[in-house]
Design goal:
The structure holds two protein chains of two kinds. Chain A is built from 13 helices and eleven strands. Chain A is an alpha+beta fold. Chain B has helices spanning 2-31, 47-57, 63-76, 91-126, 131-145, 148-162, 180-218, 221-228, 233-270, 276-285, 289-317, 319-324. The chains are: A alpha+beta, B mainly alpha.
Chain lengths: 493, 327
């Protein structure tokens, strides 16, 4: 009945005017503007950022592919002269159809277009060998930290036979450090893979083999640094030898990728972490989680706080006293230690943490709301609403809650940084959702696996400054709203 | 009036304590699932110790009320059980030592934060709208958003790794110096980093809070009266306005305690400061449950005591309570 006093069109106009006035006030507030810019930047980062990277972030169950050496620096640091000769990742892995045949002996047929090598011996104890030229590496950098030899293929075989793959590196200039280890004119070689089959049945086997530089060249100390010690051009060859004990055997090797990967000392926008995975990926996906945790738990906590505060203030008397004492007790709880033990006992996901943060985050606000409701209750418009027969729930929903919404909004935005930092603290201590790659978790791993001690700042400083900026952005916005809606803080112009 | 107020606060403190201990009991006995005795007794312990613990905690009796009452009794009498390691050493003596270390850290950093934050906030309020005020506001808002551990990692990088002038972690050097004077200097050196970084992380929001309270107070009628009497601006701010904002500042102390505790857990982990926070993290990751229960309980006690002190101070500072005028 009461609501029909105002036609809804008129009401809408009031709301629009209110929002407009608020926006005019807000846009004059410099600090608030800076906050909006910062927060918008991070929202863009969270929305658009994942599109800029082909990888997924690390979790307990998934590790993204290695893209460079452990703790590779961001690639843009090569503009500084002292880092200018840091190598990026150089990948010379080829499938067979991308290579050239250099030499061949024995009964082996190479079908380069189909990536296939077919070995069909006619006599007992027959050997066959094939030499494939993969390509050149022009290496114009300081020695790399590490490289891997890789092999990827499928072998179909019949009978007992053996094949061996060797990688041969040729130096076109002379390198004095190679002299001791040469296995031919200007070349050194490493056995990448020895594969032997037993039995006579037809079989198929998929081979995925990765051989790091140190076991590949066991007689060379620091193989990566020694082999690529000189700048220049290196040729890469692959030698595959088949050996059969019986006649009538058969083997068909589909070679999908073979070669060498020199892991970079620099990579991408933000380098790599301990496992050599892209840090930029972790950062942009972390932005999503931080925003999600911050916004959701702040909204939830504010809702709880408003409802509790309004009820307490509206009912008054003994109930109010009791509810406020409950708040006093809850405010005394050591929140972070409790969150730590709960996440240790339940190994939670992100939403569980959101709920936990909200459960421990509404008490302060409910006090503020309650005192506001107490003073609102004394005002004439509530009296007149009561006098015209409005029910209690009508007064609460139509008069009290709309009047505390401005304070609640400011409080909600000011609660976001607290929630973000609480989640970051949990993750930083190694608790929290183990399957979510968050900024705090990046900093945790940085400390845990030694990136922090090694000065890999991209793994801890960048997420740290991101947390800081995002939180400061929300604080600025909240402060600006507070100045507008809270008349005591308002500067008289 | 004051007596009634104090009695009420003390009763509330005890209720709070009881709620927290009950929560502790719920977390470690009821919510955990499985056999709750596993959180008190480790199969690796010698049999004599196992039997003693069983009777001490009443583990063969029903959960409620026997185990619950024994739980309350044991915690209030500092019987925290034995650790889950090879020696099965009792928790309480180590707790005392570590609690001391934590209190040193908390006490110094809280005192430093207040001693730095309040004067800066008052200074800013007295220069409202000018450069100093804007700077303090900026720093205050900034420190509200920066995680303590981030400040500490930057600090470690600069002072402990790049410059190398401060020790990076620990309570003392290893082995600790024998001479008591050297030992004191050594401990002080190790304490500088955690204390200073905690102060850096905390003073800004204190300054901001004090500034806002002060600006509020400076608009009150009694300030106008004081100015009209011809008092100097210094007297107006430091004698009249400051006294009026003391009670809310004391409340702020109480409200800041959770943040300080949180900060201390992380700080102790970063600087390997052998307090209860670091112990807590270690016990949680190492499933050393009796330690975790005891530390959680002690944190709660610390917070209740701090809140009670703040409430008592409030009672003495606020004339409306001290003299007994009803609000």
């Amino acid at each position: 009945m009461v609501s029909k006093l105002y036609p809804s069109k008129y009401k809408r106009q009031i709301y629009i005017r209110r929002i407009k006035n608020f926006w005019i006030d807000f846009s004059h507030n410099k600090i608030g503007f800076v906050g909006v810019v910062i927060v918008t930047f991070f929202i863009l980062l969270a929305v658009v950022g994942p599109l800029t990277t082909p990888y997924k972030p690390m979790s307990q169950l998934y590790r993204p592919p290695k893209v460079a050496a452990s703790y590779a620096a961001p690639s843009w640091i090569t503009i500084f002269p002292q880092y200018s000769d840091y190598n990026p990742t150089i990948n010379l892995t080829r499938s067979l159809n991308q290579t050239q045949l250099a030499n061949q002996t024995g009964t082996i047929t190479a079908e380069l277009q189909n990536d296939k090598l077919i070995f069909s011996p006619t006599t007992r104890g027959e050997n066959a060998s094939i030499l494939i030229y993969l390509g050149n590496i022009t290496y114009n950098y300081s020695p790399p930290p590490e490289f891997d030899l890789t092999f990827r293929g499928i072998i179909r075989f019949n009978g007992t036979l053996e094949f061996k793959t060797k990688i041969i590196l040729v130096n076109y200039t002379t390198n004095p450090k190679w002299e001791k280890y040469l296995t031919g004119p200007n070349k050194i070689e490493a056995t990448l893979l020895t594969f032997s089959t037993k039995g006579l049945t037809t079989n198929v086997s998929t081979i995925k083999h990765n051989l790091p530089s140190v076991p590949a060249f066991p007689n060379i100390p620091e193989p990566a640094q020694t082999i690529f010690s000189e700048k220049g051009k290196y040729g890469v060859y692959v030698n595959i030898t088949f050996y059969s004990i019986d006649q009538g055997n058969y083997a068909e090797l589909t070679l999908q990728g073979v070669g060498i990967v020199i892991w970079g000392r620099v990579h991408g926008i933000l380098g790599t972490n301990f496992h050599g995975c892209d840090v930029w990926t972790e950062l942009v996906y972390g932005a999503r989680i931080s925003l999600l945790v911050g916004l959701l738990s702040a909204i939830l906590a504010t809702t709880l706080g408003v409802i509790y505060g309004v009820i307490s203030g509206f009912l008054g008397g003994m109930i109010d006293e009791f509810l406020m004492r409950v708040v006093d007790v809850l405010l005394c709880l050591p929140v972070l230690p409790i969150l730590l033990v709960l996440s240790r006992l339940y190994s939670p996901n992100v939403y569980f943490i959101v709920v936990l943060i909200a459960i421990f985050g509404w008490q302060g606000l409910s006090r503020v709301i309650r005192s506001r409701v107490l003073s609102l209750k004394e005002l004439a418009f509530i009296e007149s609403a009561k006098a015209s027969g409005a029910s209690e729930s009508y007064i609460i929903w139509r008069h009290l809650i709309p009047n505390v919404i401005p304070i609640a909004t400011a409080a909600m935005i000011l609660a976001i940084p607290g929630a973000i930092i609480t989640e970051a603290s949990l993750s930083f201590l190694g608790f929290g959702d183990p399957n979510a790659s968050t900024w705090g978790r990046m900093m945790f791993w940085s400390r845990e696996l030694g990136g922090f001690s090694r000065g890999a700042w991209w793994e801890w400083f960048v997420p740290g400054i991101s947390i800081t900026l995002l939180c400061v952005g929300f604080v600025f916005i909240g402060h600006a709203i507070d100045e507008i809606v809270n008349p005591r803080l308002r500067i008289r112009r | 009036m004051l007596r009634g107020y104090l009695i009420r606060k003390i009763i509330i403190s005890f209720i709070t304590l009881w709620v927290i201990v009950t929560l502790n009991f719920m977390i470690f006995r009821v919510l955990v699932g499985g056999n709750p005795a596993d959180l008190i007794i480790n199969p690796k312990m010698p049999k004599a110790v196992r039997d003693a613990l069983k009777s001490q905690w009443g583990l063969d009796k029903p959960l409620f009320p026997d185990q619950y009452l024994l739980y309350l009794y044991n915690l209030f009498t500092w019987n925290y059980g034995n650790q889950f390691d090879e020696t099965a050493s009792p928790v309480a003596p180590e707790m005392a030592w570590r609690l001391r270390n934590t209190l040193i850290l908390l006490g110094c950093s809280t005192a430093g934060t207040i001693a730095l934050g309040i004067p800066i906030g008052m200074f800013a309020a007295s220069r409202r709208g000018r450069k100093a005020d804007v700077a303090v506001m900026g720093i205050g808002l900034f420190t509200y958003g920066v995680p303590t551990f981030f400040i500490q990692m930057i600090w470690v990088t600069i002072f402990c790794m790049q410059l190398g002038i401060l020790p990076r972690a620990g309570l003392t050097s290893l082995p600790p110096p024998q001479n008591p004077l050297d030992l004191a200097i050594d401990v002080l050196k190790h304490a500088i980093s955690p204390i200073v970084t905690l102060i850096l992380a905390g003073f800004g929001s204190w300054a901001l809070y004090t500034r806002n309270l002060m600006i509020d107070a400076l608009t009150e009628d009694f300030i106008l009266t004081a100015r009209a009497k011809g008092l100097s601006e210094k007297d107006v701010i430091y004698k009249h306005a400051f006294k009026s904002i003391l009670p809310p500042i004391v409340t702020m102390v109480a409200l800041a305690i959770p943040g300080i505790v949180t900060g201390a857990v992380i700080t102790e982990s970063i600087f390997a400061w052998e307090g209860i926070g670091r112990w807590y993290i270690q016990s949680l990751t190492g499933a050393n449950w009796p330690v975790a229960q005891a530390v959680l309980y002690n944190y709660a006690v610390l917070m209740v005591i701090a809140n009670l002190i703040a409430d008592i101070a409030y009672g003495f500072l606020d004339p409306r309570i001290r003299i007994g005028v009803r609000r």
